Amino acid sequence: MTENQPDQDILQKFDEISVKFGRARAALGKVVFGQGNVIDLTLATLAAGGHGLLVGAPGLAKTLLVTSIADMMGLSAKRVQFTPDLMPGDVLGSEVLEESAEGRREFRFIPGPIFCQLLMADEINRASPRTQSALLQAMQEQHVTVAGARHDLPEPFHVLATQNPIEQEGTYPLPEAQLDRFLLQINVEYPDLDAEKRMLESTTGADTSVVDAVMTRDDLLAAQALVRQMPVGEQIVELILKIVRSARPVDNASERVRNFVAWGPGPRASQAFSLAARALALIDGRHAPSLDDVKRLAGPVLRHRMALNFAARSEGIDTDKFIEEILAGA
């Protein structure tokens, strides 16, 4: 074997996985119309090994996207409708006391819906903070603890949660610690005219499109390994750190950041930038991320990791606009 053979093997695997992601994008585009950027960011979230928060009005195919990804990759998937009366045990599972034929009593663990490879947490902000926090350990450590016993989750394990930004009555804002566990917050916008017309023609006829199975669980695990092996240029690292650190309201921050930002992004934001930028490059078939990848990810990485104060809101400045300002100055 030549000295550079391992690198050639990695490049060959990289090209094979990139081709499969290209097919995945095309397959999802046939059932989810006009959401190319959402599809790219969601696939990048999975390729980076992370969790995604999909925020959009009802009827924008958030649920369809998640179920289609599960079918397309052959992942075991569960959907949990988060409601105010949902308890942690309804998600994680619980122990029940059983009596055997011999009269011996013992506890048996009954796994909850979280024991799957792709969990759809629908309208996650409708559950109580206690139930929301039940996901924290699972999302970070890939296992849960019930009654003092550890239970490992399947591999891979991803959470794709949805949230309705319009109707806030009866909802509970996600704690900052949980928001930080989501690699990206992906805003789902309304489709353009052409996409909505294609959707209308495709979904109201006698035949409906079904997503093709173009990837496997092993392909996804291979992609996650490749993402972490991908080189990142010094310019990319410097831009990531400059963006993240300039969004924090610390003493040496700009006056505008100190006046308008209540709290800023932590180190997980830098990690999310690095992993997601590499994942986007993989999906596009590029062997290294670019500065444009980082700029494209500024909103999805930062918008749920920082908050503006009342002074900013009183001047009509929202988080996305402020992130654009930070990006312009980076």
Automatic annotation (TrEMBL):
Q: Which CDD domains match?
A: AAA
| Coiled-coil positions | none
Please name the Gene3D superfamilies in this protein's record: Magnesium chelatase subunit I, C-Terminal domain, P-loop containing nucleotide triphosphate hydrolases
Q: Which organism is it from?
A: Hyphococcus flavus
- Which InterPro entries has this protein been placed in? AAA+_ATPase, ATPase_AAA-3, CbbQ/NirQ/NorQ/GpvN, ChlI/MoxR_AAA_lid, P-loop_NTPase
Q: What's the name of the protein?
A: MoxR family ATPase
Record's SMART domains?
A: AAA
Specify the AAA+ ATPase domain's residue ranges: 48-192
